[in-house]
Design goal:
Strand content: 5-15%
Structural class: alpha/beta
Distance between the termini: 34 Å
Radius of gyration: 23 Å
Helix content: 25-40%
Number of helices: 13
Oligomer: single chain
Order of helices and strands: HEEEEEHHHEHEHHEHEHEEEHHEEHEEEH
Length: 424
């Protein structure tokens, strides 16, 4: 399709949008009494209007049933998490038994590393990407310290080549081969938070396992955003947050994946009573008998008030389907890319999109170096109704989330950006 930088063209695209009805199902902040253009769904998704009803249901059950809500609420609390198995499995490409919901993201990655990072002899090294999200970096450091290794020795970062913004697949594979029989674990972010680069999960997983390592993924920026086939790709484990592309609310519950081939294994784990045999859980037995599947990694009674917004979201995803979501994601991201190039020409600027141009290597994010511009431009955008994200030294991250961003938003953003630059 040949794009045009006009309001009429953007509105025409919106009229054909298969997801246009969902824009009205979200609550938008307002700036100057006008609905914002929201580009930060890669940090915190907007609130779906249906969320409140899911929370109110639990509050009402708590008020009317008190402790009996565990068993007699409309959605009994003691098995509330089981309602996620089917819809979440479709979002991440898994069997229902391979997914669960519990805790928060870094907590779950730590717990999964108890099972899947088992350094022994000379096989103790972890491969991750350079500039992994800081929480992952801290996790790696504390994990290797706990096992008695030095981070500078045990943690191997795959680096970008000089002058390049993204990591090449061939460099990942070469590093895995180089570390070889010293490699215990590969754990990479499925989508890099800074650049928006999507990694080849299938190929990297196969390479890591061929080297004798376990392979896991931090899918914080991937779940609900890219096509995932965790079961078929033979991924050992994964975890993701729910508050970015899945709109479950700030700091909310994390999803986990454990491949079925590990369900009957004797992998170590930190156990708790919510992972114990469901039918015998309330018998208070002294010996741990894990639930079969990913639910067996659960520890504590689940916070259903936190799970309620997440359930509202995954049911929306079930209505939409990932194929429809990804189709619009690719199209609206391409339109945003076009708008950026057009405005760059009009203002005689020097924008540099550091997210890969290949649609196979990106998702719902464009990270843009605004060469020659500074923080003042970001402040201008925010004051004029564009909520975006600033990263030093002068990068803005733009996430045109397909569920609630419109093509006209992309056009309007371009006009506001142009005014912000020319008005200096």
């Amino acid at each position: 399709m040949t794009f045009q930088n006009t309001r009429e063209f953007a509105r025409e695209l919106d009229s054909k949008d298969a997801l246009k009805q969902y824009q009205e199902q979200f609550i938008f902040p307002k700036v100057n009494d006008k609905r914002v253009i929201y580009f930060t769904g890669n940090s915190l998704g907007l609130q779906p209007k249906r969320t409140k009803a899911y929370i109110d249901e639990i509050m009402n059950d708590w008020a009317e049933l008190a402790v009996e809500g565990h068993f007699y609420a409309e959605k009994p609390w003691w098995d509330y998490q089981e309602r996620f198995a089917e819809p979440l499995s479709k979002i991440v490409g898994a069997l229902p038994s391979e997914v669960t919901v519990m805790n928060t993201l870094t907590v779950n990655l730590h717990l999964l590393m108890v099972s899947f990072y088992q350094p022994k002899g000379k096989r103790y090294k972890i491969i991750c990407e350079e500039k992994a999200f800081p929480s992952d970096q801290y996790m790696f450091q504390s994990q290797v310290n706990f096992h008695g290794y030095k981070p500078e020795d045990a943690i191997v970062e795959i680096k970008r080549r000089e002058g390049e913004h993204n990591i090449r697949l061939e460099d990942v594979l070469a590093k895995i081969e180089e570390v070889g029989d010293e490699l215990a674990l590969v754990l990479i972010g499925g989508v890099n938070y800074y650049t928006g680069q999507v990694f080849d999960i299938k190929t990297i997983t196969a390479a890591g396992q061929k080297a004798g390592a376990k392979v896991g993924w931090d899918l914080a920026h991937a779940a609900g955003n890219i096509k995932l086939e965790l079961h078929d790709w033979n991924v050992d484990f994964a975890a993701w947050c729910s508050y970015k592309y899945m709109n479950s609310g700030p700091g909310n519950a994390s999803g986990c994946f454990v491949h079925e081939r590990h369900h009957n294994s004797d992998l170590p784990r930190f156990a708790g009573w919510w992972g114990h045999n469901k039918e015998r859980r309330f018998k208070m037995e002294p010996s741990f008998d894990p639930v079969h599947g990913a639910d067996g990694w659960q520890i504590s009674n689940l916070p259903v008030l936190s799970l309620a917004p997440y359930l509202a979201s995954v049911e929306m995803f079930a209505e939409v389907g990932m194929e429809t979501l990804i189709a619009k994601r690719d199209h609206i991201t391409s339109y945003l890319e076009f708008i950026l190039h057009e405005i760059d020409k009009e203002v005689k600027g020097n924008f540099e999109i550091i997210t890969p141009s290949n649609p196979e290597e990106r998702a719902s994010q464009l990270s843009v170096f605004l060469h020659g511009e500074g923080r003042a431009l970001f402040d201008y955008l925010m004051k004029n109704g564009v909520i975006t994200d600033w990263r030093e030294p002068n990068v803005i991250r733009l996430a045109p989330v397909p569920l609630y961003c419109s093509y006209e938003d992309m056009y309007d953003f371009g006009q506001i950006l142009k005014k912000g630059i020319l008005g200096k």
